[in-house]
Automatic annotation (TrEMBL):
Domain of life: Bacteria
GO annotation (BP), single: proteolysis involved in protein catabolic process
CDD domains per UniProt: M48C_Oma1_like
Alphabetical keyword list: Hydrolase, Metal-binding, Metalloprotease, Protease, Zinc
GO molecular function: metal ion binding; metalloendopeptidase activity
Needed co-factor(s): Zn(2+)
PANTHER family: METALLOENDOPEPTIDASE OMA1 (PTHR22726), METALLOENDOPEPTIDASE OMA1, MITOCHONDRIAL (PTHR22726:SF1)
Full protein name: Peptidase family M48
Organism of origin: Reichenbachiella agariperforans
InterPro entries: Mito/Outer_Membr_Metalloprot (IPR051156), Peptidase_M48 (IPR001915)
Domain Peptidase M48: 74-235
Length: 262
């Protein structure tokens, strides 16, 4: 009799063991990024996307502007736990109020957006938001979800120029989903706080955009690709920092930066 109980107990233990293994595997699968691609593939695609961008847009390379971007990026990246990319910030001469992230750490900022910003600290929180999209691989996810992971891989590794340009368009012009927008905001708010830049500047920027374009909010490129709803505005403008929080100015003459723009 007791032998039978032991046997049943062992069977039960084995079942629990299997369930435990299954769950740990399941959790591992959830934690691992399902949209991971090889670094070389991502770099090739990013180079292609960049070439494509340069066909349609003119980038501005001015040493003073580059050094301003350098100051901001250094402040941000030194406060990140891991930095996945060697970030490249491209300034595009265009009146669109827009910014977007491509692959492999390439971020594009339009002069129309820089003109719209009131301070270097505001630019820093926008860049922190774009870094959030990059670190969390949202662009790969967006493309893969739209055309399917298999098609994405075959286009990405096949090198067909026409399909690649379609892929580029998809990556830069379609909207992120709400979940990814919120994740990029959370990343930006946290990174801004760690970098001693007031995180509520993100909400202030959103409110200004909305006020300025209250009738045609959806026409704004930035909002078309980064859908903005009242939850995002509220969360970022109400973000709480500890009482001891004090912003450490970037010491950038913002009027001078705006005057540098063509
Ligand atoms: Zn976004």
């Amino acid at each position: 009799m007791s032998g039978k109980i032991w046997k049943e107990l062992l069977i039960l233990l084995a079942i629990f063991g299997l369930i435990w293994i299954a769950f740990s595997y399941y959790n591992y699968e959830i934690d691992a990024n399902p949209f991971a691609i090889k670094a070389e593939t991502e770099q090739e695609m990013a180079d292609f996307m960049n070439e494509y961008m340069l066909q349609d847009f003119e980038t501005i390379n001015q040493a003073p502007l580059d050094s301003v971007l350098g100051v901001i990026m250094t402040r941000l990246t030194t406060h990140m736990d891991t930095v996945s990319y060697d970030y490249q910030i491209h300034v595009i001469r265009d009146s669109q109020i827009n910014a977007f992230t491509s692959l492999n750490g390439n971020i594009y900022i339009f002069t129309g957006l820089i003109e719209e910003l009131g301070s270097a600290e505001e630019l820093a929180v926008i860049l922190a938001h774009e870094i959030g999209h990059a670190e969390q691989k949202h662009v790969i996810e967006k493309i893969a979800k739209t055309i399917g992971m298999e098609a994405f891989f075959s286009i990405a590794t096949g090198g067909d120029a026409v399909l690649m340009s379609e892929l580029t368009k998809l990556g830069i012009s379609t909207a992120f989903d709400r979940k990814n927008e919120e994740a990029a905001d959370d990343f930006a708010l946290e990174l801004a706080k760690k970098s001693k830049i007031n995180p509520r500047r993100l909400g202030q920027f959103f409110i200004r955009l909305k006020r300025k374009n209250s009738t045609a909010l959806d026409d704004l490129e930035f909002i078309r690709t980064h859908p903005l709803d009242s939850d995002r505005i509220q969360k970022s403008s109400d973000y709480k920092t500890p009482n001891s929080f004090k912003e450490k100015p970037l010491n950038i003459d913002w009027d001078q930066v705006q005057q540098m723009l063509p």
